[in-house]
């Protein structure tokens, strides 16, 4: 049994022994269709199937970094409440293509991908073996862009969604889960073309740190990328990686829009500095530019460490626990 499967089975065992959320949660639309227009997404409502189709090749160096929680959560959801993203769920401006790339949509955490970064578009010319791409976009957009790079460039996907969904979650990863189902059949059709030296692709939600801490009664499932998700320089070198490209929208110079994220997201700042110190070129490619031309990432003079304080790890692995109500006898 591969490490990939054994880790997933261990996680499934832990959550099957735990208590289910007291309130039912829905994912997508059970009657919806996948990106190919069919209903074959139903074959991927089992955690094992979705985990495999969205993961790297078994036995390779990237296996240990493929995060389990969001896939394992399918095991606790009623099948009649699970489905792919429905187009009607998207804001009208998104469907009509009238939202500028990177524009914030508040709690919907949505963004539209430009035509040059959607499934069916050619891949960036720099995406070759030896390049590790870290795709960092808001929520569901990261999944669709991931489908683009897997199908167009033959990348090995590694999902970094290291948290659990919950009806009272601070973050709403069920939207990501619905997109994973929507594009599962597309990835399944492309997996036969993946090779052992296919470039790795980390698929990340740029809003993982959240914009507030959990309050009493919330399920705080904010998370950061730690050493379990980020390979060290020695492993990267041994796997033939020669450079790192961070693919994300550019910062909004005016600071307007409310949906912009730092470049990189804070939990990657010290990590990128470590890679630069070890001799790895780290580049940034702006997803909003059709050329997708990478430019060198300049390490800050004093890189900030990952924001670890206040994040709540789960006993089942990953992040996400309920924030307890304050004790009646507490003095505050």
Q: Would you kindly provide a brief summary of this structure?
A:
Helices cover 23% and strands 10% of the residues. With 332 residues, the chain is an alpha/beta fold. The strands form two sheets. A six-stranded mixed β-sheet has the order 2-3-1-5-6-7.
Task: Give the overall silhouette.
Answer: globular
Radius of gyration: 19 Å
Please tally the β strands and state the result. Answer: 8
Helical content stands at 10-25%
Mean pLDDT: 86
Q: What is the subunit organization of this protein?
A: single chain
Question: How many DSSP helices?
Answer: 9
Question: In percent terms, what proportion of residues is strand?
Answer: 5-15%
Rounded to the nearest angstrom, the distance between the terminal CA atoms is 50 Å
Given as residue ranges, the uncertain stretches (5+ residues, pLDDT < 50) are 16-20, 93-110, 252-260, 328-332
Overall SS class: alpha/beta
Largest sheet: 6 strands, mixed
Strand line-up of the largest beta sheet: 2-3-1-5-6-7
- Tell me the domain tally: 1
Order of helices and strands: HHHHEHEHHEEHEHEEE
């Amino acid at each position: 049994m591969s490490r990939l499967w054994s880790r997933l089975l261990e996680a499934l065992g832990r959550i099957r022994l735990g208590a289910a959320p007291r309130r039912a949660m829905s994912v997508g639309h059970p009657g919806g269709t996948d990106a190919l227009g069919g209903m074959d997404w139903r074959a991927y409502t089992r955690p094992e199937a979705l985990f495999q189709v969205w993961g790297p090749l078994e036995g390779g160096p990237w296996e240990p970094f493929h995060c389990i929680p969001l896939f394992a959560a399918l095991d606790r959801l009623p099948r009649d409440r699970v489905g792919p993203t429905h187009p009607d769920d998207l804001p009208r401006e998104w469907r009509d293509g009238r939202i500028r790339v990177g524009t914030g949509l508040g709690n919907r955490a949505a963004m539209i991908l430009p035509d040059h970064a959607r499934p069916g578009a050619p891949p960036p010319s720099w995406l070759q073996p030896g390049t590790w791409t870290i795709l960092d976009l808001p929520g569901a957009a990261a999944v669709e862009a991931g489908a683009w790079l897997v199908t167009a460039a033959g990348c090995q996907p590694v999902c970094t969604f290291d948290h659990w969904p919950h009806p009272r979650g601070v973050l709403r990863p069920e939207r990501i889960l619905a997109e994973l189902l929507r594009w599962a059949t597309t990835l399944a059709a492309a997996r036969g073309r993946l090779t052992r030296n296919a470039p790795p692709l980390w698929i990340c939600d740029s809003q993982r740190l959240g914009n507030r801490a959990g309050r009493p009664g919330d399920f705080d499932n904010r998370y950061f990328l730690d050493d379990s998700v980020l390979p060290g320089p020695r492993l990267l070198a041994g796997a033939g990686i020669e450079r790192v490209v961070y693919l994300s929208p550019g910062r909004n110079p005016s600071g307007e829009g409310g949906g912009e994220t730092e470049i990189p997201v804070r939990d990657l700042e010290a990590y990128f500095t470590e890679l630069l110190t070890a001799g790895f070129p780290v580049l940034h490619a702006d997803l909003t530019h059709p050329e997708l031309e990478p430019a060198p990432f300049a390490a800050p003079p004093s890189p900030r460490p990952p924001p670890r304080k206040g994040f709540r790890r789960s006993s089942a692995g990953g992040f996400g626990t309920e924030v307890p109500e304050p004790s009646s006898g507490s003095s505050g």
